[in-house]
From TrEMBL:
Entry protein name: Initiation factor 2B-like protein
InterPro entries reported for this sequence: eIF2B_alpha/beta/delta, IF-2B-related, IF_2B-like_C, M1Pi_N, NagB/RpiA_transferase-like
Coiled-coil ranges (or none): 78-105
GO MF terms, alphabetically ordered: guanyl-nucleotide exchange factor activity; translation initiation factor activity
Protein biosynthesis among keywords: yes
Keyword Protein biosynthesis listed: yes
Cited SUPFAM superfamilies: NagB/RpiA/CoA transferase-like
Alphabetized UniProt keyword annotations: Coiled coil, Initiation factor, Protein biosynthesis
Family statement: Belongs to the eIF-2B alpha/beta/delta subunits family.
Source species, domain of life: Archaea
Any matching Pfam family: IF-2B
């Protein structure tokens, strides 16, 4: 379970950073079925596997926080192997539930800021953003939502499919380079959060030019996500995807760069909404 989860995270088959953190946390349940002679042996194995999971995506603050919380709750606390396993089982449930709860509370807080008749623009794929919009629509709001394709992986298409299934949501898709066209009709940009640290907001590639364009056109930008994605003393590491995502057939003397994330100064974001509340 752990090895498969590491491979899935590295391949980015799970697109939501919160979902990644939950999946990684639950994968540690594999250790409950292993045999250990001593508590030290169990703790060493836990630290090793939590570290492997954490390093499988060094850009995800929620994943980093989840693995650290599991380690803090177990290592040095157990009196026997049985006690350590019980603590791990309880901690897995608590950490996973905390992530889901925080995401839900952040989405509920964001939904309160969405008004009936609003036109929004969203980018990439964020389950928290989708839940925010769904909450607002269920509350009776009629919305128009523009979705960018989010190339090169075109995850915006996945977002559009989910939005299309929501009542009272008029979904429209544009290519990334048409963001300026779409923003002229928008009341707000609503984005997810990969990580916030050191005064910088990290999110999927394409976020920075979107934020800059929105500011130029006077469209407020809101970032929504769990507070676990805000972290200090964290060195964000960008990921560089396979060049084939950009160009299927390589061209001689052309270097393809395919970064996964953009860095945007937090000061350029008008509103940050988490489970802890709203910061303007």
């Amino acid at each position: 379970m752990i090895d498969e989860t590491v491979a899935e995270i590295r391949a980015m088959r799970t697109h939501s950073t919160s979902a990644v953190a939950v999946k990684a946390t639950r994968s540690l349940a594999e250790l409950l079925d292993r045999e250990y002679v001593t508590v030290d042996g169990f703790e060493r194995d836990l630290e090793h596997n939590a570290g492997v999971l954490r390093r499988s995506n060094p850009s995800h603050a929620a994943l980093h926080n989840a693995m650290r919380e599991v380690e803090r709750s177990i290592v040095g606390e157990a009196t026997s192997v049985e006690d350590a396993k019980q603590r791990l089982e309880e901690t897995i449930d608590r950490v996973a539930d905390d992530i889901e709860t925080a995401k839900g509370e952040a989405a509920a807080n964001a939904a309160e800021r969405i008004e009936d008749g609003d036109t929004l623009l969203v980018h990439d794929y964020s389950t928290t953003v989708l839940e925010s919009i769904e909450n607002a629509a269920r509350g009776g709001a009629h919305l128009t939502v523009y979705v960018t394709e989010a190339r090169p992986r075109t995850l915006g298409r996945k977002t559009a499919r989910v939005l299309a299934g929501m009542a009272r949501v008029d979904t429209r898709m544009v290519v990334d380079s048409a963001m300026g066209y779409a923003l002229r009709d928008c009341d707000r940009v609503l984005l997810g959060i990969t990580c916030m640290t050191g005064g910088t907001y990290y999110n999927r590639i394409g976020t920075f030019p979107l934020v800059v364009t929105a500011r130029e056109l006077g469209v407020p930008v809101t970032a929504v996500g769990s507070g676990a994605k805000q972290i200090e003393e964290f060195r964000f590491e960008n990921e560089f995807r396979d060049a084939v995502e950009v160009m299927r057939e390589p061209v001689e003397d052309v270097t393809i760069e395919n970064p996964s994330y953009d860095a945007t100064p937090i000061g350029m974001i008008d509103t940050v909404i988490t489970d802890d509340g709203v910061v303007e």
